[in-house]
Amino acid sequence: MLTQIEQALQSYQRSQHPMREVSRKAAVAIMLSEQAGDTSVLMIRRAERKGDPWSGHMAFPGGMVDPTDDHSFAAAVRETEEEIGFVLSEQDRVIGRLSDIRARRAQTHEDKGLVVCPYVLRVDRTIDPNPNHEVAEVVWVPLTFIRDLSNRRQMPAELLDMPRHIPCYRYGDRIIWGMSLAMLDEMLSHTFEDHPDPWSMEAPV
User: By the 8 A CB rule, do 77 and 65 touch?
Assistant: First the structure.
């Protein structure tokens, strides 16, 4: 599966968010690796923190782009080292970049919101995570679990101040949803024709 994803992303044309230039920016590293014979993605469960809009959520290593960062990918590299103690290097190949995604939860009346830049990497070496205080857990999620659409469910949420049901996966006691799932869906729907598009509501309740 990893080879299929890598080949598919070579021809992928990502889209830039129209608010990109006036928004705050963040970047994440979507790290793929072969784990126990299965292509898996490294995810973190964020620590429970008061005031954090993503407290306790499943996410990818990453964070805000600082003025000291040369570009958004540099922020993903820096934040990955800070959050899980893993230093991305040239041997960890960037195999694709997904579309910008706007984080509505981070928007306030005083700013233009936050645009997140996702980078997909192939990591063929061992990752021995050493998470910091921002991370409660580091877990490898098999992509076969995400690809099995019988695992896809819906959960209640409020979007644009309206109650809705949105797609999610329950991996043990963890819930994968929101922006993180939209990124995985974008990557997998481009690779596999039968995979739902990002934000697709086609899932059993």
Answer: no
For residue 179, give the H/E element and its range. helix 178-191
Q: Helical H runs in 49-129? A: 72-84
Question: What is the total residue count of the chain?
Answer: 205
Given pLDDT bands bounded at 50, 70 and 90, which one contains residue 201?
low
Query: Would you call 123 helix, strand, or coil by DSSP?
Result: coil
Rounded distance, CA 205 to CA 194, Å? 19
Distance between CA atoms of 63 and 40, rounded to whole angstroms? 21
The answer to whether 15 and 105 have CB atoms below 8 angstroms apart is no
Q: Which residues of 134-156 are buried (b: 16+ CB within 10 A; e: fewer)?
A: bbeebebbbbeebbeeebbbbbe
The CB density around residue 158, as the number of other CB atoms within 10 Å, is: 9
Least confident of 29-38, 96-105, 144-153: 96-105
Q: Give the distance from CA 139 to its chain's centroid.
A: 13
The three-class DSSP label of residue 64 is strand
Q: Are strands 62-64 and 93-97 parallel, antiparallel or unpaired?
A: unpaired
Rounded Cα distance between 58 and 198, Å, is 17
Are the beta carbons of 4 and 187 closer than 8 angstroms?
Answer: no
What span, in angstroms and rounded, lies between the C-alpha atoms of 28 and 61? 6
Q: Taking Cα atoms as reference points, which of 172, 181, 15, 12 lies closest to residue 100? A: 15
CB-neighbour burial class of residue 182 (10 A; exposed 0-12, middle 13-18, buried 19+): buried
- Residues 102-117: pLDDT tens digits? 886 544 444 568 899 9
